[in-house]
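It is worth pausing here to work through a concrete case rather than discussing structure prediction in the abstract. The textbook approach is simple: state the sequence, then state the predicted structure, then interpret. We follow exactly that order.
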Amino acid sequence: MYVCLCVGATNQMVSDAVAAGASTSKEVAAMCGAGGDCGRCRCTVRGIIEATLAAAPVGPEDGALRRLSLEISPVGSH
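Step two, the predicted structure:
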């Protein structure tokens, strides 16, 4: 199914971007273009991101540690 008509991105393209490590709509837009133009599909893109991440097995092989490391900022010196 087409998710983003602006660039012709499908739900499979968005799911593939998430499987490759994208975890935000901006990251998906950078990888496949969906949600990067007019923005009307961003809600749908976010839903696909959530569904894809929820269905993925948890472990280092699926990029979970990479996503976690992006969320943790370095601690400043004491």
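Step three, interpretation. Residues 27 and 46 are 11 Å apart (CA to CA). Residues 68-73 have pLDDT under 50 and may be disordered.
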